[in-house]
Each structure stands twice: as C-alpha cells, then as structure tokens.
Specification:
12% helix, 4-stranded mixed β-sheet, 8 strands, mainly beta, single chain, Immunoglobulin-like
C-alpha cells in the first residue's frame, strides 16, 4: 500500500513540474519581472476613471460626465459602439480612430429619475484585446428640501 502511494505521489508531483510557466527574471538577479509587457500590434485603452459618482442630485436633474481614454498601444484605438444600460442615459464618443499616445472620450448624459440610489453602466465596444470596457455612473437622487 505504501509503495503504491509513493509511486502515485511521485508521478503526480512530476507532472506538475511540466505544467508551470516560466517566470521572466530580470538580469539574472532572481527578481521576477512583474511589469506588463508593452503592447505590440494592438490598441490598448487606459481610462483616467471608469467610475463617476455624481453625489446627491435633485429629482429629474440632467447631468453629464466625460470619461477620458488614452491609447497606450501602438495601433489606432477605435471606439466602435457605446451602449448605455437604460434609456435615461445618452452617450456620445470619439468616432474617429485615436492614434497611439492620443486621447478620446465617452460623454454620458444622465437624466435622474425620482429618489433613491442609482448605478448606470455604459458598455464600450473597442478594437482592444478585451473588446469591451464597462464605465459606471452612480449617485443618489434626493428630494429637494
């Protein structure tokens, strides 16, 4: 029984050695290189903020916020579509390709309803590796005193 257990442990332990990926090491110091590799051949979206909190709003208030995105890749970034989660939010966005190192925008115009907390999302479809990014608007509608 012990022999079977030892053989089983050795065979399973040996297979796990081959399943591991190598970790890049900087200059042979033994310190893992944890920095992200630069994007090659693609657009990369870097958002200044992905969430905006309006705080407290009056009922039926109309507010707007502009999200800023910078292309940190080496190909043009294209915002292909922006879908708000409800009809109370209307979006506008940069329609032309955003060159590497340049910035674009997604502007959300929100029409507040009646009282209570709210959280609305905008699904941004792009030509990036992830394809989609979710932006969020939040706040609270409070009665006017």
């Amino acid at each position: 029984m012990n022999r079977i257990l030892i053989v089983l442990l050795l065979s399973l332990g040996g297979t796990s050695l081959f399943a591991q990926q190598a970790i890049p090491v900087a200059n042979g110091t033994g310190i893992a290189n944890l920095e992200a590799a630069p994007a090659q051949g693609r657009a990369v979206d870097q958002w200044k903020y992905r969430v905006h909190d309006f705080g407290k709003l009056a009922p039926r208030a109309e507010v707007s916020y502009t999200f800023e995105v910078t292309n940190t890749g080496d190909r043009p970034l294209e915002i292909r579509e922006v879908k708000p989660s409800c009809s109370c939010t209307v979006a506008d966005y940069t329609k032309t390709p955003i060159a590497p190192g340049e910035s674009g925008f997604v502007t959300a115009n929100y029409h507040a309803g009646t009282r209570g907390r709210f959280a609305k999302t905008l699904m941004v479809k792009m030509n990036t590796e992830a394809s989609y990014t979710v932006l969020r608007l939040q706040g609270e509608v409070v009665p006017v005193e």
